[in-house]
Amino acid sequence: MTSLKTVSLAATAFMTMASQAIAADNQALLEQINQYSMSSSTAQVNSIFQLSDVAPSDWAFDALRNLVENYNCIVGYPDGTYRGNRPLSRYEFAAGLNACLQQIERLIQSGTSEVTAEDLAALRRLVNEFEAELATLGARVDDLEGRVEFLEDHQFSTTTKLVGEVSFNISDAFGDGVDNAQTVFQDKVRLMLVTSFTGKDRLYTRLSAGNSGPSFTGQYDTLGSPSTPRTQEGRFSYDGERDNDVTIDRLHYAFPVGDSTTVTAMAILGAHHFYADTFNTGLEAGGGSNGALSRFGERNPIYRLGIGTSSTGIGIKHDFNDVFQLSAGYLSTNGSDPSEGEGLFNGTYSAMAQLAIKPSDKFKFGVNYVRGYATDSSDFAYGGTGTGWANNLNNSGMGMAVNNVETNSFGGQVQWDVTDKISLRGWVGYTDAEFDEGKADIWTWAGILALPDLGKPGNMGAIIVGSEPYVTNLEVNSGTPQGFTDDMPLHIEGLYKYQLSKNISITPGVIWLINPNQNEDNEDIIIGTIRTTFSF
Question: What is the distance of C-alpha 437 from the center of its chain?
């Protein structure tokens, strides 16, 4: 039976939680060993395959490779060798093992660990194998079994980690048309459970609550009078929740098929942007509170066709190589409803195909096509962006019916990172809508100047100028509806996200709407906000 002294020595791979910290960091440990051979600096490596003299046939190779690739924790020499042909290679190996174990413990303590039972078992075996070498390094820790029990007991789950986001927002709107708008203090909470069963798949289960449902921008109906909340322009990216009721607002499962294909099954909140690139890095936040202020500022609105908490569907992304990527998906707005005319393949739906091209690390662009159908115009919407006419083609207040809306939408988007701190983005979208009673053209466009790391790493400044979806050439029952105007609306948005710390940011910003609800007779609306976001 192994003595308590031997077990204690074998536990040198773990940091003490009780009385004494490790005397030296990972680099110092390797340098201490290297003094007995030859002087050399150390460098981080991302895979044990870089340690060229570790034999792949060795069980320790596989065990340590998994730890390195899961936790990025081993140290090697700049030339990529592990120097196993030298007398002290086992000590060097032990130093790397010690670094991995310390890294894993840090992850456990920070609450971000996904350490599996299999990894813990591998750690035990490696510690036993390198017991003498670890002891020679001079690390002093408590009992090995107690240490492993601590790691196991303090994990949230061996398969699931929790990712959270909480935002507080103080906002107000200004303009003759919104004189009655009041200053508000609103919140949004998202708790995401990210589960992996194989290490490569992901099950996303998200709980959400908030009270930012009422919008400042619904002050003009399509007839131009400030009476009913019809327009969707200027809505915040994170709005849509009321009364802080907790709901499951996202349930997705993404898994790889081979090395180049990813499939995403969406049971709740199906949307095209969950599986396809939207070419707006840092401002695209999936409706969260870490990107653009507005829904419009996140992505081309044609990605939002078919989005909804009741939408279900599937998306597929395939990388042909480092340059070409093809994405395709299908969404059904009422896919869970077995009623006649509904279900997964009847009723309202949206199908998209996109080709993304990335000639270099600094430049990428894409073209996409979205085919859609809505049983009536109230089901046809751009996910909380655009004018009242664009979202509801019979929304004139005259009781006209618009049925069986068929749409063909075409989009193009681009992102050019001129430097590490200057990025130019933009998009254009066009929708040809035909329905039983007529037809319409719907346009949208945007140009964006993004300034990543403005002031310091993690910050983001941005200016967004464009037109949210608006209608031209509207024809209903062989005529133009009363009150219809086709003036181009403008959306101008400026923001600056300041990263107070790794987990806290403050984002002041302004949204200026010109010709709201595509009517130049409507007064401009200016929305100001200060958003504070806590991420964990």
Answer: 40
Query: Do 106 and 60 contact (CB within 8 A), yes or no?
Result: no
Count CB atoms within 10 A of the CB of residue 236. 28
Residue 203 tokens, joined: 């099950």
- CATH code of the domain made up of 266-535: 2.40.160.10
| Spatial distance between the Cα atoms of 300 and 370, rounded to a whole number of angstroms | 12
Burial class (CB in 10 A: 0-12, 13-18, 19+), 124: middle
Distances (CA, A) of 140 to 13, 20, 26, 137: 9, 8, 14, 9
Q: 526 with 512: CB under 8 angstroms?
A: yes
What tokens were used for 344? 């997964």
Q: Is the pLDDT of residue 27 over 70?
A: no
Over residues 32-60, mean pLDDT: 48
Domain boundaries, the chain: 4-153, 266-535
Distance, in Å, from the CA atom of 388 to the CA atom of 440, rounded to the nearest integer, reads 13
Assess whether pLDDT exceeds 80 at residue 442. yes
pLDDT digits (tens, 9 = 90+) for 180-216: 889 999 999 999 999 999 999 999 999 999 998 767 8
Judge contact between 147 and 510, C-beta under 8 A.
no
Residue count of the chain: 536
Contact criterion met (CB below 8 Å) for 231 and 515: no
Q: Taking the chain, what is the end-to-end CA distance rounded to the nearest angstrom?
A: 44
Which amino acid is residue 256, in one-letter code?
P
Which residue carries 């509170």 as its tokens?
Answer: 289
Report field, pTM of the whole predicted structure over 0.70 = yes
Buried b (16+ CB within 10 A) or exposed e, 65-89: bbbbebbebbbbbeeebbbbebebb
Spatial contact of 343 and 375, defined as CB atoms under 8 Å apart: no
Higher pLDDT, 89 or 75: 89
Residue-wise DSSP of 61-89: HHHHHHHHHHH---EE-TTS---TTSTTH
pLDDT of the residue at 49: 43
Contacts with 1 (C-beta within 8 Å, 6 or more apart), sequence order: none
